[in-house]
Design a protein that fits this description.
Order of helices and strands: HHEHEHEHEH
Strand order of the largest sheet: 1-2-3-4
Shape: globular
Number of helices: 6
Distance between the termini: 24 Å
Largest sheet: 4 strands, parallel
């Protein structure tokens, strides 16, 4: 993906939450495989800190693959000894590149199993899919900041959210997991004309 489809949702967050949003155009696979995206997220975080911003007033957020990157970035920040944000938001996150999830989907047209496998292969290019910053569902999650996870009950990545949420809670993390009943992958992108998207953003 790229930044353009997220311009509207980012602007909506600016308005609804009265915050500044920095969108990071991290390098994409297959040209730039794992861990390029996580490395770029760390570079962006270091840049924010270098501007003198207080990490306790910052959040990291992402959807789909970037939702997984959000959690992977937290794990990488902790490993690097860098300050963590106040909280993080993962929308319909892809947290397991090993394909160990249950075969869900329930009619979600946006992210078929074949698409997940293709993206995982392009991103990993032979690396272990269970590396913590590739598949954060397998990471040690203790010490992470509060997490908000939103996921639709009709989407194939439902178990990714449920499993990472359960593991984070078991590690003592403050987790809020909200399920959008009957909703598909990253319904937030449908914008303010969709009541469920407005509610989720709020």
């Amino acid at each position: 993906g790229h930044l353009d489809p997220h311009d509207g949702p980012c602007r909506l967050l600016c308005t609804v939450a009265d915050v500044h949003v920095v969108s990071v155009a991290y390098r994409l696979a297959p040209e730039h495989p794992f861990p390029a995206a996580v490395d770029d997220a760390l570079a962006a975080w270091r840049w924010l800190l270098a501007q003198g911003l207080d990490p306790s007033r910052l959040a990291i957020a992402g959807d789909s693959a970037s939702g997984g990157h959000t959690l992977a970035t937290l794990v990488a920040l902790r490993a690097a000894g860098l300050p963590l944000p106040a909280c993080a938001v993962a929308l319909s996150p892809l947290t397991d590149l090993s394909d160990e999830r249950a075969d869900e989907g329930n009619g979600d047209p946006l992210i078929p199993r074949e698409g997940i496998l293709m993206m995982a292969e392009a991103y990993l290019q032979g690396r272990n899919p269970k590396e913590p910053t590739a598949s954060p569902v397998f990471a040690e999650l203790r010490g992470l900041p509060p997490l908000l996870i939103q996921v639709g009950t009709r989407e194939r990545l439902l178990s990714d959210s449920l499993r990472v949420g359960e593991r984070a809670r078991a590690a003592g993390v403050d987790v809020t997991l909200e399920k959008g009943e009957g909703l598909i992958h990253v319904w937030h992108l449908f914008g303010p004309e969709m009541p469920e998207a407005r509610e989720a953003v709020a």
